[in-house]
Amino acid sequence: MTLSRNKLYIFIITACLAGYIWLYWSLSNTSKVNTEIEVCLIKNITTIPCPSCGSTRSVIAITQGNLNEAFLINPLGYILAFIMFFIPIWIFFDFILKKETFLDFYHKAESILKRPIISIPLLIFILINWAWNIIKGL
Question: In which domain, by residue range, is 99 found?
Answer without folding.
Answer: 5-136
